[in-house]
TrEMBL record:
It is a multi-pass membrane protein. Belongs to the YccS/YhfK family. The chain crosses the membrane at residues 20-51, 63-82, 88-106, 113-130, 136-159, 397-414, 449-480, 486-505, 517-535. Keywords: Cell membrane, Membrane, Transmembrane, Transmembrane helix. It holds the Pfam family FUSC_2. Residues 407-529 form the Integral membrane bound transporter domain. This is FUSC family protein. InterPro entries: Memb_transporter_dom, YccS_N. GO terms for cellular component: plasma membrane. It comes from Flavobacterium faecale. PANTHER family: INNER MEMBRANE PROTEIN YCCS, P-HYDROXYBENZOIC ACID EFFLUX PUMP SUBUNIT-RELATED. The lineage of its organism: Bacteria, Pseudomonadati, Bacteroidota, Flavobacteriia, Flavobacteriales. It is found in: Cell membrane.
Amino acid sequence: MITKIQKFTESTEFTNALKITIAGAFPALLFSYLGDIGTGITIALGAFLVFPSDIPSILKHKVNGLIITTLIISGITLLINLTYPYPWLFYPIFVSILFLVSMLAVYDQRATMVAFSALVAVSLSFAHVYTGIEIFIHSGLILVGGIFYLLVSILFYFIKPNRYVELQIAECIKLTSQYLKLRGDLWKINSDRKEITKKQLHLQVELNAIHENIREILVRHRTNYGSSNQNRKMLLSFMSLVEIMELAISTSFDHNKLHQKFDDHPVVLHTYQNLAYNLAKVLKQLAKSISDKKPYQYKHNILENLHELEDAIEAYKTELGPIDSIEGALMLTTMLRYAENQVEKIKIVERAFTTAVQLKDLKGRDKDLEKLIQHHYYPINTLVENFRFSSTIFRHSLRITVTILIGFFIGKILPFQNVYWILLTIVVIMRPGYGLTKERTYNRFIGTAIGGIIAFSILYFSPSTTVMGCITIVCMLLGYSFNPTNYKIGTTFITMYVIFIFSILSPGIENLIQYRILDTVVGAILAILANHFLWPSWEFLNIPEYLEKSLEANRNYLKEFSALYNSKSEVSSSYRLARNQAFIGVGNLMASFQRMVQEPKSKQTNLQLFYKLTVLNNALLSSAASLGTYTQSNKTTAASDVFNSAITQITKNLDYAISILNQEDTKSTDFVAPEDMSRIFAELRNIRAKELNEDSSISEVDFKNKMQEVQLVIEQLIWLTNLSDNIVKSTKQLLINPQS
């Protein structure tokens, strides 16, 4: 229990909650002591409004983002209060603010959170409409609250400048460990490979997101503050983790075929599975040591496991003899090479956290990292380009604007106690996707009800103001700690601290909970109905775009690999960029499919077909990356005409599938049937094997290496051809079963 509490208090969520609790509680307590609690509450409100936009980043972006958010929320508060008495002026400004700040989400996560803060500021402006000089005093205090939170955030930044990225690295290591464990599970004879594949796809989505986040922070921090041992350590471990993941994705095995091949030799597969599990265990232990801030202790000797696998392979070759074991030995050698590469990369991650890291340890691998991150600039043309109904953010902005207006008029016409709580519920719950909105609606309603019941149970015993103040601060801290990870629990504690604040300011609020629940229900119903009926962004309408981008990225990556294989040159920046874009494209496609699964059954048009295409795209990327990895780590022979013809055939298939998605002229020409390609490859393999056998000048080691290349490249080309052909067939079915 103590360990769990310690881990919780070391988490990023708790640290963020501590920041806002200090920034909110300090002014309230200070001015309460001075006899002016109203001023303290307003300053605290400014801090609360700025807090959501405080996302992890380098100091420069953090400061700029918080200053801009502070100016926006204080400006919005000023405008709403100034124009409210004049309906002819108020409503156009009200609608414009709602729509324009919602459109900020077209840029990035920070802009999205600034938009959220602005919408919350709009909602809370109606909690009390000020007049006269009070308008400027209130807006000024909101501004002061935002600046005070900025100072608190900067203070925390210098206290723990690297803790956030350490925890992100630890989370990345843990997720990578889980992925490698699933690879180990695939070696079980009766494993549910379809279910394991689904879990792997889900983990890939999570890992893609965390890779982008870590890359952003590490690269920008190095650019602005130079290279320190800590930054080099994080960079080295992060790059190795990305390589571990890419190597795992790019190396797939035909488990059924291997089990059949080595059915009479189970020791070798069991030895490999044991190594696979221990790779995952090493990473899991490393992640735990980082998150717990404890020295890393070796529990599994993966080098010893690797030697055991080598011995098992040698025993297999000895048992069958050099002739009969050649095909199986090539398969096992491929598995051994994969294991060796993973062990090497995991050892690099281990060393990064146990020894000092020098600049030379990076070996220039970080030179292209800056090209892979999203550059933060906010051109107006990006906003203008999204002023169309095909834009998900545009439709969401219209939807939330109309919904807030409806909620505002309902609150004004019907006898609700406070309209602002309805608007706040809409803003907090409503998301561009139906699935997330529905989930947040349920969690908010349950959290509000539970929080209200607990809060009034405590108030029943009439605790003193001092006790209530302490309980309020604890609830605030826990509410903001749980809110990002468990919205239901977070809402429970936030509801409690809101009720406690009201009870301190206005004793006798027994009817408050029923009003809050009623307001929450109205806001939630409006949000759900709006997401369903007002310009809905159903994922089956968006997923073809993600599919097309993934196909294009895979095609471009294949072309870059072909150029690399033909030229035998150093890996270029364009190759690395194309590979990165291919992984991002597949990750976005997976995320889109997962959102589709959360939507109503009636809106899951062609669900199984899109799942199949998602799996096919991931498999195609895996196969292409496998060839790329092999080419980079092995000396390869000259590219044959058949190789280039096969790559051309595969890219043609992908272009054809893209044309089908765009409903362009889909008349195919000059396509070779997959079975004909397989026959050509088989003939090529036999011819190449014969040539190598007849070459008396070639050594046994070179013969094995070249045969391994022949087998690997031809098998992957056959697999890629079949995958691309299946992608075309599945894409055609989308035209047969059109979306409606």
